[in-house]
Amino acid sequence: MAGLFAFSLAGLGFLFLGAIESLSISTAPALLPPPLLLRLRFISALLLSSLSLLSSLVSSLSSAESAADPLGPSLPLSSLTAAAPFLLYSLAGLLSLPSSSLLVNPFPSSLLDLVLLFSFGQEFLLFHFRRKDLDGVENRYFDLLLVPILVCAISTLLAIARPRSPAPCVARAAGLAFHGTWLIQMGFSFFTNLIAHGCSVHERSATNYTIKCKTHEDYHRGRAIATLQFNCHLAFLMLVGAVAYGVLAGRTGGNAGYRPLSKELQMTDASPSNFTLDSDEEEEIEAAETKGTKQHQDVVLPVVEIESANGSH
Question: For the chain, what are the domain ranges?
């Protein structure tokens, strides 16, 4: 149950970070000011990274007492490389807040995003090279976990390139939420009865475990179930995103960003139903005819004046 608690707590933390990220780009800042959202983001990241560091140290010390598992003490320490950059990001962000008096020159947002990008990169490398047992079904779950981590890393890189665009924040919020739901799924799939049929967890210590199956078919079934669960989480996330977008679009109004084609269409008194594509061509033809008539009159009038002058003589 300790593993289930750790995965669930980490998943809920990432879900909360994704919710804060989504609130920062929606209409919610009218209720929650942006400084408060930034403070919540950095405090949540600080708590999550601190708990991860503490859990790694405690697990390493407890595994060191068991001489039967030589890998037990070293495995938890590998997660320190991913948790430490997140801790640095949260501390730098808290010191950079306007209400903080500890730092005269706060860190720019681009520098904070660069630290966050490095943190996601470290986490990606940690789970990419985490292969103690090549035949374990848990490797499939960790491989699929790389997808939301990569989404978070790419969106953070785009946020550095385009800091005013809301698209990277939307993608990062989706990646953080997906990261959290998949961690919770991993906890239930590893340490509860929801594990694939014919497979079981073999624990050498609290952090050194593998999921083994009885037959070769059971291994294939376990990996296929992991892929199916991943697709279900992805579909659920897309459904929630579509519903949230519909709610926000309904509140802001569908024509809030509408702009007329030109100032002439906005100033005209004619009905839009009388507008045709031929109207501009007819106006050009009438203008050309009027101009030609005027030029003809300018040529004829002097001749008339000359003839009238000759008649008087």
Answer: 2-251
